[in-house]
Specification:
Elements (H helix, E strand, L loop, with lengths): L10 H30 L4 H11 L1 H13 L10 H35 L5 H6 L6 H33 L1 H16 L17 E7 L6 H18 L5 E8 L5 H5 L10 E8 L6 H15 L4 E3 L5 H6 L7 E6 L3 H15 L5 E6 L5 E8 L1 H7 L3 H12 L8 E4 L6 E4 L11 H5 L15 H4 E8 L4 E3 L2 E10 L4 H15 L8 E6 H31 L3 H7 L2 H14 L6 H32 L2 H11 L1 H20 L9 H30 L11 H5 L9
Length: 697
């Protein structure tokens, strides 16, 4: 199915399969457990398989559809989140559909051959030689069952106590959920978690106008410092890339901010089993400010994920000041940048378009030039051809007669002959003059020194000044909020006709978060409406989804305790948890309705439903949680990317499971109280006395 939709096996589709591993076991686990429960009631094997599989066919279908339907909003997202997580959602949906079909067909068939009626195995095992390992597993199985039965009896007593104090339990759970939501602002926000790719890119910018030979000399000194910081056994290699690329294509694809021979990129690769890359980056940043105070340095994204998220920019934060007043905008940008540098977590902030590059201004005296018969075009072509080459004004090519390959021919004054202002003043003006006498540049123009920007950027045709920056030690959301406050406070000082905006990864993150928040709310609504259609009732779906607020609280607590910031993967985990958390509640409430028809008592039905469904609920929840542990630990290269997703699912499942076992039965009892009991009241004593011992479990 993935191939038919044009998907491949990649980190997202494989992540979806890893995400669904625990859920895939769920359908088969519930089926086998229910068959075993019917066998324990004394039914024949074939009848137990038929009744057990049929009893949970509809609840399992609803649970599967709840898990699948929460991914529908993902396909309506926009931007990076859609293209990253659509393959993951498709992998989970197709795996869940296949799991449900197999659990309804293959699993009951295999159960008919492999599962025997209770008591038959012990009789057949007599006189049969068994392996020591099998004997040990058999003893462990009996010990575990005995311990679990004690645990289940304790759970029934605890649930009975909660049902008898339903009002207090509901108040406690709702209060805890509300208080847990108070931790939400302290989570922090990042678009995506940072990935330790084992390499980092260090961009160095010396004083504007520096020749590339001097830039290389400074880079060599910086390299020596880097080798002092990184141990030799952890350093794999260092590659330098200095100056402007020759090809215009390479310049257009450059994402580090290179703009002149004063720029250089140092790409550092680390060996396996290295110390955290960010640790080296922090030390190198500190050493650079101390040892090379006149050298600008920043660390562009080195891994492909961060480069994609930045959309070609060299930093996640981009403050743009647009307007025609370049001088006023640059002064405003410099003042604002000084304020931003005091924000905790704000690092590597710089103005991308500096104005200190030296330049020579050639001013033509048009009156004197007309007297000498020299045109402005002749002066411009002469200066440009001497300093930049003839290909700028008159491109010429030479064709090799042997292989018919054309080569560009460029005529230029040798740099060693153009080494002073006097050499430039004595430059002959090509094209001659109307007077017939050769003229030099000094006769028709004056030369003065000045400064300019080595690069000019525009946004919607308007000149723009960009303030780029990164974050370290704080989350992107916090730093962006602090910067936005400074930007809002400084708008009154903007030059007339200028505008300021915060763009970059920050704006993309906010747009994606809004879409995911809406997707989270929409997934809860879809789950509720789906169950309304299946149960033909408005109250039963409400009882089932009462576990979802607890799941949200569990997500918040898990992210808070593990120090994980809120990110797109974490919100994806929250969306998925809405479907997974509903699955177990469906089984409990469905069975409670069956018992309600039998006992006519909501209290007893709720208690017995929780008691009977304790094992499958715990088994399925633990299977899902265990399946998420490798992802939550962030194991392997790039595992940090999906770690928040696994942690969110685990936290939500833990709290949702507790809510399913205690809170959902309590809400069921309150909502259903008096509807079937002739006396209009529940009967707590019926479920805790000896009469309850003989009920099916």
């Amino acid at each position: 199915m993935l191939s038919a939709l044009g998907q491949t096996l990649n980190i997202m589709t494989l992540g979806g399969l890893a995400l669904a591993v625990g859920i895939l076991v769920d359908d088969a686990t519930v089926t086998i457990e229910n068959i075993d429960r019917h066998l324990a009631e004394g039914k024949p094997t074939l009848d137990a398989i038929r009744d057990g599989a049929a009893q949970i066919a509809v609840p399992a279908l609803v649970s599967t559809m709840c898990i699948c339907i929460v991914f529908i909003p993902i396909f309506f997202l926009s931007g990076v989140a859609k293209y990253l997580f659509s393959p993951l959602a498709e992998a989970v949906i197709f795996a869940m559909i296949a799991s449900y079909i197999l659990s309804r067909t293959l699993v009951p068939t295999l159960a008919m051959y492999w599962i025997r009626k209770h008591g038959e195995e012990s009789h057949q095992a007599k006189g049969r030689k068994t392996f020591a390992l099998f004997t040990w597993f058999s003893r462990f199985h009996r010990w575990f069952n005995n311990q679990f039965e004690k645990f289940r009896e304790g759970y029934r007593d605890l649930l009975s106590f909660g049902l008898r104090n339903a009002g207090k339990l509901v108040t406690l759970v709702l209060g805890f959920t509300v208080v847990s939501m108070g931790l939400f602002p302290f989570l922090g926000q990042n678009f995506f978690p940072s990935v330790d790719s084992g390499q980092f890119d260090m961009h160095v910018r010396v004083k504007s106008g520096t020749r590339i030979e001097e830039t290389a000399r400074s880079i060599d000194q910086i390299e020596q410092m880097i080798r002092q910081v990184i141990p030799a056994n952890q350093l794999h290699g260092i590659i330098d890339n200095l100056g402007i690329p020759y090809s215009g294509i390479n310049i257009s694809y450059n994402t580090t901010g290179t703009m002149s021979p004063a720029d250089g990129d140092i790409l550092v690769s680390l060996n396996e089993n290295h110390d955290p890359t960010n640790k080296f980056v922090q030390v190198i940043r500190t050493r650079m400010h101390h040892d090379f105070p006149d050298v600008g340095v920043w660390f562009p994204p080195a891994d492909i994920v961060a480069q994609v998220l930045n959309f070609g920019l060299s930093a996640p934060i981009d403050i743009q000041i647009t307007g025609a007043n370049k001088a006023g905008n640059f002064a405003f940008a410099s003042k604002l940048m000084d304020q931003i540098r005091h924000v905790p977590g704000a690092v590597d902030f710089r103005i991308q378009e500096p104005n200190d590059a030296p330049q020579l201004n050639v001013t033509i005296d048009r009156t004197l030039a007309s007297v000498l018969g020299v045109t402005a075009q002749a002066v411009s072509n002469s200066v440009l051809g001497a300093l930049a080459g003839s290909n700028q004004t008159s491109p010429n090519f030479w064709v090799d007669p042997t292989n018919r390959v054309s080569y560009q021919v460029n005529a230029q004054v040798p740099q060693y002959d153009m080494d002073s202002l006097d050499s430039l003043r004595n430059l002959p003006i090509l094209g001659g003059s109307n007077t017939g006498q050769a003229q030099i540049l000094a006769n028709a123009a004056t030369i003065s020194r000045g400064t300019t920007s080595p690069v000019v950027d525009h946004y919607n045709i308007t000149p723009v000044i960009n303030i780029y920056g990164n974050v370290d030690g704080k989350d992107l959301g916090y730093v962006a909020d602090q910067i936005q406050k400074l930007v809002d406070a400084s708008k009154k000082d903007l030059p007339r006709g200028s505008f300021i905006d915060v763009r970059g990864q920050v704006s993309t993150m906010h747009d994606s978060f809004v879409g995911l928040y809406l997707g989270l709310a929409f997934s809860m609504v879809l789950v509720y409406l789906l169950m309304v259609v299946n149960f033909q009732s408005w109250t039963e779906p409400f009882i089932i989804i009462t576990a979802l607020p607890c799941a949200l609280a569990g997500i918040v607590w898990m992210l808070f305790t593990t120090g994980t910031t809120l990110s797109v993967p974490a919100l994806m985990g929250a969306i998925m948890c809405m479907g997974v958390a509903t699955a177990n509640s469906v089984l409990v409430v469905t069975f409670a309705n069956e018992l309600l028809e039998q006992y006519k008592d909501s209290y007893r039905a709720a208690l017995e439903a929780g008691y009977a469904r304790l094992r499958p609920v715990l088994m399925t929840a633990m299977a899902m949680i265990i399946g998420m542990i490798p992802m939550a630990l962030g194991l392997g290269e790039g595992g940090e990317q999906n770690a928040p997703l696994g942690r969110a699912v685990i936290g939500g499942l833990i709290f949702a499971t507790v809510a399913t076992l205690f809170f959902v039965p309590t809400v069921f009892m309150i909502v259903r109280r008096g509807r079937h009991s002739p006396s209009g009241e529940s009967s707590p004593q019926l479920a805790v006395g000896p009469e309850a011992e003989g009920q099916p479990n």
